[in-house]
Amino acid sequence: MSVRNLKDGHKKPWLCECYPQGSAGKRIRKRFATKGEATAFERYTMNEVVDKPWLGDKPDTRKLSDLIELWWQLHAKNLKSGTHAHRRMIIICEHLDNPMAVSITAKDYAHYRANRRMVGASKRNGVVELSPASQNYDLKCMRAMFNELIRLNEWSYPNPLTSIKLIQKSELELSYLSQEQIIKLFSSIQNEFHAKQLTQIIKICLATGARVSEAMNLKGSQLSKYKITFSNTKSRKNRTVPISEELYNEIYQDNTDKLFTCNYGAIRKGVSDCFTDLPKGQATHILRHTFASYFMINGGNILVLQKILGHADITQTMRYSHFSPSHLQDAVTFNPLVNLAL
């Protein structure tokens, strides 16, 4: 960030660090007693060559917030996850004190990320470490913003965050329900207010691999004979999945309106109340995991599973490949102990 408090006990703790000719050009550093002085010096320095063409191209004096707003207007507001990403980036901008965009360096962001992990935000304790997944999401958003503005010729400098690596994290445990647990779940939700609707939604998820949100928002118009077409999906692509005649007859309604009125919270509560030891964040997604796991256990094709789940990238689907009966079976046949009588 271009202006920051070093908090080192110096009588001039505020440091202005800026690059009038861009991040690849000359760096100027100067210390001040107050933030106001440092900010004023930054503004003066960055504007100094604006009317001096012999010094080269005019510097880009836009703030990070200006770039975020430009990215939002030209691109992000049309994305399904654009609103959430925009909100996250505004928070990042505030934590960085809204620096001149051209002054942002990989070093600045790396230090910000390290401090952010230590500070975090929590409604309960006030302090909690921000998860690696959240950190990686933020970095991806920032990178994507610079890349998109470069593509649109709205940013003439290199992406300053290209060299920063994502935080390595362990693969999440993919739990799935046993057949006994599935029976237990259906029995448990019979005491819930929307028991019939909950039963049908869970059946749809287990029969098609649908996300809970996709199943609960189904309309009669999305049903055709023994098929469900999921629209407004996470990938924004429609997909059609066959279902049994029995399930079709159970959920069919002679209208084009929404089939269900119960909300996401009711479904999440129904699953959580039945299984209190589920991994964090899998209270509803476990239904999708269960479908995918059994699909592979029963000999399904991984490429077909990719299409059913609507994954854009096969690597997402490969998480379930180890459930296949033949997965890495060659390890049994070709290991060095095969021909040894030990």
Structure description:
By secondary structure, the protein is mostly helical. 43% of the residues lie in helices and 7% in strands. It has 14 helices and six strands. Helix 7 crosses helix 11. About 1% of the residues have low confidence.
Order of helices and strands: EEEHHHHHHHHEEEHHHHHH
For CATH, the homologous superfamily of the largest domain is named as Intergrase catalytic core
- Mean pLDDT figure: 86
Strand content: 5-15%
Q: Main β-sheet, in a few words?
A: 3 strands, antiparallel
- Here the CATH topology of the largest domain equals hpI Integrase, Chain A
Tally the beta strands.
6
Please give the count of helices.
Answer: 14
Q: What's the gyration radius in Å?
A: 27 Å
Tell me the layout of helices and strands.
Blueprint: E1 3-5, E2 14-18, E3 28-32, H1 35-47, H2 64-74, H3 82-95, H4 106-119, H5 132-151, H6 179-188, H7 195-208, H8 212-216, E4 223-224, E5 227-230, E6 239-242, H9 245-251, H10 264-274, H11 285-297, H12 302-309, H13 314-317, H14 330-333
Antiparallel strand pairs: 1-2, 2-3, 4-5, 5-6
Helix pairs in contact: 2-3, 2-5, 7-11
Question: How would you briefly describe this protein structure?
Answer:
This protein is 43% helix and 7% strand. The protein is mostly helical. The protein folds into three domains: 3-55, no CATH class; 64-152; 179-323, Intergrase catalytic core (hpI Integrase, Chain A), CATH 1.10.443.10.
